[in-house]
UniProtKB/TrEMBL annotation:
InterPro entries: CoaB-like_sf (IPR035929), DNA/pantothenate-metab_flavo_C (IPR007085). This is Phosphopantothenoylcysteine decarboxylase. Transmembrane segments: none annotated. It holds the Pfam family DFP. One of its GO terms (molecular function) is catalytic activity. One of its GO terms (biological process) is coenzyme A biosynthetic process. Residues 2-209 form the DNA/pantothenate metabolism flavoprotein C-terminal domain. It comes from the Bacteria.
Length: 216
């Protein structure tokens, strides 16, 4: 089985020394890569800038990227040959409209940045998804969580969407633990306990594998 995984943040350059980024560490995506590899899968881990060490497993090929555009190119290159797509990256929705060739100098009291929309990696690849391919997305919502997650699942052609809880202390960005809820297209909901990201990853991988090979 071949798995395409996106993980970590993206950095969108503003000038030679600055970028727009986010607080994603990549922990959840890297833990998923390890869990898939332990399960025998061949994983392409397309990772944005993360401080985490590159996974040592020979079953994991790590492709390092910086921007959403680079992440899209690296993911698109292997999407057709992957059986499972997992989009765990926190992709910047917008990037600076222009990258200044020189360091932007301090001048007025305010500075207005113009941003343009980035490619939606999951949604764009989703348009060419074959019926036998399986796609999993992530979502982090602060209101109407289930409705927003369902909407994303349909819009991006996901088979499952993993909703990150922000309500629980110890869950989410930077933490070693996570609390997630998994939704499918039929509206079925699976609630995971607050547990280590490694355990969440193992639970998600078994759930995905069970969906891929439904018991008779
Ligand atoms: N995603 C992606 N490419 C993007 C944005 C998001 O592949 N440019 C993926 C994420 O990796 C995640 C899913 O889409 O699996 C949902 O991301 P999210 O940021 O929650 O969705 P958005 O469509 O960007 O909506 P929002 O306005 O809530 O940020
Ligand atoms: Ca977003």
């Amino acid at each position: 089985m071949r798995v395409l995984l996106t993980a970590g943040p993206t950095y969108e350059p503003l000038d030679p020394v600055r970028f727009l980024g986010n607080r994603s560490t990549g922990k959840m995506g890297y833990a998923l890569a390890e869990a898939f590899a332990v399960g025998g899968a061949e994983v392409t881990l397309v990772s944005g800038p993360s401080q985490l060490p590159e996974p040592a497993s020979p079953r994991i090929r790590t492709v390092r990227v910086e921007t959403a555009a680079e992440m899209f190119a690296a993911a698109a290159a292997v999407a057709a040959t992957a059986d499972v797509w997992v989009f765990a990256a926190a992709v910047a929705d917008y990037r600076p409209a222009r990258v200044a060739p020189e360091k932007i100098k301090k001048s007025g009291e305010t500075l207005v940045l113009e941003l343009v929309k980035n490619v939606d990696i999951a949604a764009t690849l989703g348009q060419s998804k074959r019926p036998e391919q399986f796609a999993v997305g992530f979502a982090l919502e602060t209101e109407n969580e289930l409705a927003h997650a369902q909407d994303k699942l349909h819009r991006k052609h996901f088979d499952l969407i993993v909703l990150n809880s922000l309500r629980d202390a110890g869950a989410g960005f930077g933490h070693d633990t996570n609390k997630v809820t998994v939704l499918d297209a039929a509206g079925q909901i699976v609630n995971f306990e607050l547990q280590s990201k490694a355990d969440v990853a193992r639970g998600l991988v078994s759930l995905i594998l069970a969906r891929l090979t439904p018991s008779p």
